[in-house]
Design a protein that fits this description.
mainly alpha; Arc Repressor Mutant, subunit A; three-stranded antiparallel beta sheet; 6 helices; 3 strands
């Protein structure tokens, strides 16, 4: 992402637009929901977790496959998967002695797709 050091333009005079502020305050989610949303986006702030999500974007895989695809240890992958699972971004399915991971739902797929689209602009 390219940094822009152009100064932000500000109003020349202070004028509060009460009708607009009323609309905004009526639509603003509760503080605890905003906090949870910020926490969710923190999860996306780690490149290893993003790499894992991109693999899962393509296929359901086990920890062994993820470790091999990302050239990481199974322990490191498991640690990140635990965080992703706690955040309800991935789900697990056991098949015999193996556990397969996939994206939790289409919302996760949409977040990843739109995020990538945004950075590619």
């Amino acid at each position: 992402m390219k940094q822009d050091f152009t100064p932000i333009e500000c109003c020349d005079q202070v004028e509060i637009h009460e009708p607009l502020l009323k609309i905004v305050s009526d639509q603003l989610p509760p503080e605890d929901e905003l906090y949870d949303l910020a926490e969710l986006f923190k999860i996306f702030g780690d490149s290893t977790r993003i790499r894992i999500l991109f693999v899962l974007f393509e296929a359901e895989v086990c920890v062994c496959d993820l470790a091999s695809a990302l050239n990481m240890t199974q322990s490191a992958i498991s640690h990140q998967l635990r965080i992703l699972k706690q955040s309800q971004l991935v789900k697990a399915r056991r098949e015999g002695k193996q556990v397969f991971y996939s994206l939790a739902d289409d919302h996760v797929r949409t977040i990843i797709s739109q995020g990538l689209e945004h950075v590619e602009e």
